[in-house]
Structure to design on (302 residues):
């Protein structure tokens, strides 16, 4: 590819993601940008969409503030797909014009814009919640995972919520927190609601949630996990060297993929991108992306 990447390695925030979404749409006219909701502080949550086929797949990233690099990885994937579609050249051996003919792709690179702003720029970006965010560790490097109200979006979905609340209480998490508080009730947060509404209105065949880190693929949640999910996860693992894994402890309920599997009875996956300590440094971006690219393409095409 001879075109300069728009998605170069950089620390990203809500403004950067908005600019990149606009730039990708301007360069690749077959992409569209659709708002799906707003954060607690009113920042728009936007999706990038491609195609109108019957097989619809969702990729969502940056549920957790300090995992902002996942948004950039999601956008790089969009950019490489856009370039492959524009030129007709293969990407990782795939002819995407043909492979994506029956697909509709929806990317939500920044599920938790307020959380990313806090993780990158500190508590002062949290508006009326700045004091609470500061008291709960919003200015400690690498700590902030939640949204502006201190609710962990990936603990706020309606899947095993009572068990999750019990587990949180046992760990002493009973209110707004940098991480792992599921909120007062399921889907109490507008960021969670935006994804729920999107999935309830678009019949996705499967969904993929990007997190960091661990190089792991989670595919299972309860009795409604479709039988094909394990094989799909195994294929993603085989092309990447990632490990197929099962969650435990506080990560066992309330997540996006948990809710999607439990409610829609379709495959849902959590991909833990990269290895190291969050936030993964920008210097790891190219290597994390290269290792995950085939996994992500398979996740879209399988
Ligand atoms: Zn995460």
């Amino acid at each position: 590819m001879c075109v300069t990447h728009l998605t170069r390695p950089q620390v990203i925030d809500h403004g950067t993601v908005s600019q990149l979404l606009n730039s990708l749409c301007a360069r690749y006219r077959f992409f569209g940008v659709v708002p799906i909701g707003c954060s607690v502080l009113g920042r728009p949550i936007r999706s990038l969409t491609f195609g109108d086929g019957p097989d619809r797949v969702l990729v969502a990233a940056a549920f957790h503030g300090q995992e902002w690099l996942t948004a950039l990885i999601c956008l790089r994937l969009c950019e490489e797909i856009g370039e492959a579609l524009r030129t007709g050249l293969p990407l990782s051996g795939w002819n995407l014009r043909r492979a994506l003919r029956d697909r509709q792709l929806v990317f939500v690179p920044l599920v938790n814009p307020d959380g990313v702003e806090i993780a990158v720029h500190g508590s002062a970006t949290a508006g009326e919640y700045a004091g609470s965010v500061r008291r709960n560790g919003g200015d400690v490097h690498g700590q902030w995972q939640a949204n502006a109200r201190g609710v962990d979006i990936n603990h706020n979905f309606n899947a095993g919520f009572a068990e999750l609340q019990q587990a949180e209480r046992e760990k002493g998490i009973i209110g707004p927190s940098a991480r792992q508080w599921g909120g007062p009730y399921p889907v109490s947060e507008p960021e969670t609601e935006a994804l729920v509404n999107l999935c309830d209105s678009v019949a996705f065949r499967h969904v993929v949630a990007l997190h960091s880190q661990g190089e792991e693929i989670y595919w299972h949640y309860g009795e409604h996990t479709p039988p094909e999910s394990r094989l799909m996860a195994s294929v993603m693992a085989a092309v990447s060297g990632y490990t197929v894994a099962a969650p435990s402890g506080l990560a066992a309920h309330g997540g996006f993929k948990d809710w999607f599997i439990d409610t829609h009875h379709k495959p849902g996956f959590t991909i833990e991108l990269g290895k190291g300590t969050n936030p993964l440094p920008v210097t790891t971006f190219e290597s994390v992306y290269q290792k995950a690219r085939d996994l992500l393409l398979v996740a879209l095409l399988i």
